Amino acid sequence: MAFYDPDATWFLAQLKPNSARIAERNLKRQGFMTFLPLEDLTRQRGGKFVTRTRPLFPGYIFVAFDAARGLWRKINSTQGVTRLVSFGREPARVPLDLISQLMLRCDTHGKLLPPKLVKPGDQVVITQGPFADFVAEVEQIAPDRRVWVLMDLMGSQTRVAIRAEQLRAV
Question: Which domains occur in the chain, in start order?
């Protein structure tokens, strides 16, 4: 997300498998604005927990351009891109409100920021560490940004302290 034009019209491009960075680089090289929202995801591999950054919407990237100029056809032949998502002959526009809200939730590199406000009683998903993908309920928030959550582990409620950056609201 190198720059942002509030008047741009955004579209969605479908990517070839594992080609997000290749497509992003080639689209930018051609002068298109792109937006690839990312998230950290923790998975267990070989007995270890591995956190990696991956696209929030795997297989897709947002591209901004002026459809009236007809330059969108060259996006379909860009390395890493399968095609622009379209309904009929013209590419389908993505609502500007959706793009702007997504951009507000991301840092300058497109990485999804943790939710700013969680409050006691909220349902959250733990995104990193040994409890990744567990759903929990916020019990208490400490001043040091540590959040106490209640998780159902082996049939009983367990209280666990988690950093706020490791939570995503449900």
Answer: 10-105 (3.30.70.940), 122-169 (2.30.30.30)
